[in-house]
Amino acid sequence: MHGSPGCIIWRYLVRRHQRGDDDPDLDYDGNGDPTDDCPYDYLVVNGVKYCGTSGPTGVVALDGNITWVSDYSVDGPCPLTDGAACATSPNYPDKYGPYERCEFTNVPPNPLVSLAFDVEPGADCSYDYLVVNGVRYCGISGPSGVVPLDGNLTWVSDHSVDGPCPLTDGGACATSPHYPDKYGPEEWCEFTNVPPNPLVSLTFDVQGDYSPYNDYDGNGDPTDDCYYDYLIVNGV
């Protein structure tokens, strides 16, 4: 389903330099000292994290190991803006497209801020949605104030169509080509990733089987062939 663009922004996200602990009141590692966490990007020497502008000068790597970690990554077409502090839907500020998926990992545990959120609504957010902490968000109510506890965000848009069949009502309705005029000969449309919800036929008038005596498909029932024009759902 095609929908409107949406952008979420979270504070203290990845920057183009190694950051320190921006919030000295949060004890991320639970050791009782909220000033030594380096919860974002850090270098580890002898089990100690270094971040900010104070590196491990003079420190001897006793175990022979040094580890570098930077937080946050995205897999998919969702771009990062504002120095990677904001994640947007694909094609923003234009509309996002169908059948898209983005997965954000290692997102810092800070409250999200929805600057713009306009996603196709649906029962249980069954069409397009953003997932934070296992909860789907759609419509115009984004996850502002929500902390991604598991460090993951997932964006999903459903449904694509290949062929001349247009989508209407914000992508919730599919029509035959040229509707409300008659469809033409030798036309083909294929819809994929349709949500598993009951279909509603508002108008359906398709050329039927005018010869009930010819069993075209050879299944023994000459009344179910739809030899001319037809719509297929679940192989029927």
TrEMBL record:
Keyword Disulfide bond included in the entry's annotation: yes
Keyword Disulfide bond among record annotations: yes
Alphabetized InterPro entries for the sequence: CUB_dom (IPR000859), Sperma_CUB_dom_sf (IPR035914)
Source organism, top-level taxon: Eukaryota
Record's keyword terms, sorted: Disulfide bond, Repeat
Protein name from the UniProt record: CUB domain-containing protein
